Amino acid sequence: TSHRFRVWFREQQLAGTCVSAAVAPNQRMCYAVIESGEVALHFADGPNATNWVMQTTSITDASCVHIAYDPTSAIGRLYIIVDGSANDVKSYYTDDEGVNVSVAVTVTGAGDDASVAINPMGKRIVLYHHSGDLYRVVYDPQGNVITAGSVIVAGGVNQGKTAIAWRLGVWFAYYRDGGNSLIQISSIDDGETWS
Q: pLDDT at position 165, please?
């Protein structure tokens, strides 16, 4: 059988800053934004991502957000990584689409422009930069730190968003260098070494 959906694209003015988006294993779409220092999650109802339901979380004092779904979670656990106003990075999760949020876990007390990705086995990496260096923290599927925050690129990392992704056994990290060029590095050993 085949399904046909008619889609209309229209420009929309949405509230909030610093947007991040993710798709759950059950294909429910979510985007997160910062609204007046709070993290607001928006969930799509229906296959066309046209009807959105907003949930304002209890996370406050945030300047930027990045989200990722845990593909190993049967309940749709969503990780929320937040840049705080004090140049710190904190990690939260929600199992009920933001109605309840976990206690904050500090990723680093000095860093910003964080991003997060989770591989199909549940290993999670948070990427961030501080003082011109690029750092990462590696977590196991239970949330334990495997590799504490350590430099993977020393010097030459420009201010601005970072990004991390996993594909076919390889982790990819993205950042801007001092000349504002987009740089991609990769790791084939679960985030331990990068080139």
A: 96
